[in-house]
Amino acid sequence: MKINILGGGVAGISSAIALKKKGFDVTVYERHESETNIGAGIVLWPNASFILDKLGILKE
Ligand SMILES: Cc1cc2nc3c(=O)[nH]c(=O)nc-3n(C[C@H](O)[C@H](O)[C@H](O)COP(=O)(O)OP(=O)(O)OC[C@H]3O[C@@H](n4cnc5c(N)ncnc54)[C@H](O)[C@@H]3O)c2cc1C
To answer: Domain span at residue 23?
Structure first.
């Protein structure tokens, strides 16, 4: 099954990784040409770290 995701934020990218791991054909469409940031740090709560670990990207 082919799945298109609109938005390459944390929700879109996380969903894409999880769906690809399940064997789906996933394409993410992002309106910005490259990543942006607002100069702020980010706090990762334990449940977010748990999910990143499950997705295999916690170390990165
Ligand atoms: C100042 C600030 C500090 C924060 N700090 C933290 C923190 O420390 N820890 C934490 O867990 N959370 C933090 N948050 C909250 C966190 O950033 C959001 O909860 C999270 O980014 C939401 O992710 P998202 O993927 O749902 O949406 P977004 O990150 O908003 O991603 C949506 C993406 O969809 C794209 N898009 C929209 N419409 C279209 C379209 N029609 N076609 C294609 N692409 C489209 C947008 O360009 C965007 O890239 C912070 C938020 C702010 C504003």
So the answer is: 2-32+39-55
